[in-house]
Please model this.
Amino acid sequence: MMSTVCFILFIAFLLWMNTSKRIAWRDKSKLWHYLANRKKQSRVIAIALFLLAIVCSIYTIGVASGIFAFVVILMCMACLIVFFFPFAYFGYRAVLGVYLCSFLIEVFIH
Model:
């Protein structure tokens, strides 16, 4: 479940960052252009994803530790996106691959 929380926060922060006018994004897909042009709807979706992630985190590990884990994971995902985004090291396939591997490992360990 925590790998899913990380993935949801990754998508939510990327969606929120997409609404910024200061971010220069090369090779932006049509979907990201569409979402960037609809700033209010994009931010509502991002907030909904943030809320979904915090609810999943609280459900998985409890209230206090869930909120703390949410904040830590959010800061981690934000740092990763801001740090690696300009270099375009990872595409959506790599991110999905890492998520699926971590999800499968989490399922098999549990």
Observations:
- DSSP finds five helices and no strands in the chain.
